[in-house]
Task: structure prediction
Amino acid sequence: MKKLLLLFIGTVFIITLPNAAASLSAANMLAPPDGPGPVPSAYSVNAFPNQTNGGFTKGGGAYVPGSQVKLEAVANEGWVFINWTEYGSQVSSDPSYDLTADADRTLTANFVKQYSVKVTSSPANGGYSAGGNTYPSGEMFTLKAYPNNGWAFSKWTENGKTVSTSETYSGYVDASRNLTANFVSAVGLLFYQVPSFNIYPNLNEGQLIIENSSHSQALISEISLINEGGEYVYRKTENFSDKMVIDIAGSKPGAYNLRVSLTDGKFSNYKIMLSE
Result:
């Protein structure tokens, strides 16, 4: 033990001190306290577009821990928002994304180019088509052509070149497209027509009646009612009878196309007009 000698006039004091080296060593062996480190005063929430010309984001910045954060993705003209990703994984497909500030975050708003697929009919009274719209780059589109009575579908053309001879045409969008559904007069092509169906409304019940006067039920492949947007209002592909009823009471006023198809490829289209 070390001793400290203090000399005062007339008195002698001897004080014993602990070993300094041993005390220092013991202090070094104390373990730090358990538990998380201190909470930062703010968390950083960063939001960036994947392409600066595709759009921009709102809501990024520094936030008090536990506070609510609202991020927004706004697409520029000609572009469309796809999703929010973080480290390559999707966290939301909604342009408005809410989160809690509980850590530093870096999110990416992904935009892709949007293209238009336009369709026209030639001649205009030959029929109509469905499927024209705007689509994100890389998405598949499907077009469907519907000839009017007395007309038959011929082909799809683009810039004067034939791209398909099928009434249904699909493709992937990588540029704006302008396609034409070409129809030809059915004079001399009577095999396209199915003349032996009687069609009339039952106005009191809001029904459309289809009577099959001469074809075997087994020869009918489909009966469908399609609105101007190309959407099926009614579609029947089995269990046909000599008298079939379509409920049109809840249908919106406008033009509809009623199509009766047979298993041998023959068909007939009927223009139906519903009014108030």
User: Anything to note?
Assistant: Confidence is low (pLDDT under 50) at residues 1-18, 20-31, 188-193.
